[in-house]
């Protein structure tokens, strides 16, 4: 979904072709490598978006001794669908790292709605974390397994605190207009 959001957001800015979008994503920082985005994956998503009617070919550039370049544009349906895809990304993300493309495309959505989605996500995260902590207290562990249980408890507590911290930080930065 993130790749499709990236493509749609770039096509709102202007018509473009797949190879150029991949090049833009790789310079100056190779985000395409970090995300494992290959040309074949990118072309797959262009094809999927075309089948959904969200983008369309508007020009074919033919150059001698080079493959044809298909130039794409976003359709009206694509413009309407982009915010829905961004909201869905925030709703489905389990960590801030999964929200990066959504955060990069906040200009295409209502920031207050994103904040509400994240506040609800944070509340559910804390409820789940508290439930698990209460459950741990009820477990009767024999002495031989106590070190392992303590290790796992520390790990998951740290991970839960980290996730909560960064969701809170993301909410605050969106509210302050720093993202």
TrEMBL record:
Pfam families: PadR. SUPFAM superfamilies: Winged helix' DNA-binding domain. It comes from the Bacteria. InterPro entries: Tscrpt_reg_PadR_N (IPR005149), WH-like_DNA-bd_sf (IPR036388), WH_DNA-bd_sf (IPR036390). The lineage of its organism: Bacteria, Bacillati, Bacillota, Bacilli, Bacillales. It comes from Planococcus massiliensis. Residues 7-82 form the Transcription regulator PadR N-terminal domain. This is Transcriptional regulator PadR-like family protein.
């Amino acid at each position: 979904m993130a790749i499709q959001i990236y493509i749609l957001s770039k096509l709102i800015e202007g018509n473009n072709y797949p190879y150029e979008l991949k090049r833009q994503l790789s310079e100056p920082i190779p985000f395409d490598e970090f995300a494992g985005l290959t040309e074949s994956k990118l072309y797959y998503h262009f094809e999927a978006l075309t089948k959904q009617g969200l983008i369309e070919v508007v020009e074919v550039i033919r150059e001698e001794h080079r493959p044809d370049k298909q130039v794409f544009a976003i359709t009206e349906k694509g413009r309407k669908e982009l915010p829905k895809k961004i909201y869905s990304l925030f709703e489905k993300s389990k960590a801030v790292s999964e929200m990066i493309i959504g955060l990069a495309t906040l200009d295409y959505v209502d920031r207050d709605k994103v904040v509400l989605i994240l506040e609800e996500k944070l509340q559910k995260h804390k409820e789940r974390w508290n439930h698990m902590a209460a459950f741990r207290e009820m477990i009767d562990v024999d002495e031989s397994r106590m070190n392992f249980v303590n290790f796992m408890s520390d790990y998951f507590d740290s991970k839960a605190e980290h996730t909560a911290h960064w969701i809170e930080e993301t909410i605050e930065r969106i509210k302050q207009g720093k993202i």
